[in-house]
Structures are given as structure tokens and as C-alpha cells.
Specification:
alpha+beta, three-stranded antiparallel sheet
């Protein structure tokens, strides 16, 4: 039986590049959302430390997560 999967990533932008990282993560979220098995993507920015972001991916299963990674390819993760 497959279990739902939550992947969480904590990222910190280099000085002066938080808007660039935010935009890249928002673009990545838009690519992940329509993937088969994706149950949602959330992006949070810390109000007290605006260079810090939390990126959450919810997947129906690990298999769906892996398949999406293969489908998207490495280019999906480039800004």
C-alpha cells in the first residue's frame, strides 16, 4: 500500500537574491502542480528572515514523486 508523501525543503537565498529565488521556486511549483500524483505545492517566505523559504510538495506516493522527477528532468529545477 502506498502512503502519501510530503517533501519539505528549507532554502536560504544569498544576499540580495531573495526575489530571484522566490521567482524560481514559484516557477518550479507551477511545473510540479500538474504532474500526475501531485497533491499540491506550497511556498512560504519567512517574514522575519525574508531570504528564507520553505517549499512543500505533497505527493500521492513515492513512485509518483520519482516519476514526476524523471518527466520534469533537471531543467525544471533551473532558474
Amino acid at each position: 500500500m502506498d502512503m502519501a508523501l510530503l517533501r519539505s525543503y528549507l532554502m536560504t537565498a544569498t544576499a540580495g537574491r531573495q526575489e530571484e529565488l522566490r521567482a524560481a521556486l514559484a516557477a518550479l511549483a507551477a511545473k510540479i502542480r500538474p504532474c500526475d500524483g501531485s497533491e499540491g505545492v506550497e511556498l512560504y517566505q519567512d517574514l522575519d528572515a525574508p531570504a528564507c523559504f520553505v517549499f512543500l510538495e505533497r505527493w500521492r506516493s513515492m513512485e509518483d514523486h520519482k516519476a514526476a522527477g524523471k518527466t520534469l528532468g533537471r531543467d525544471a529545477f533551473q532558474p
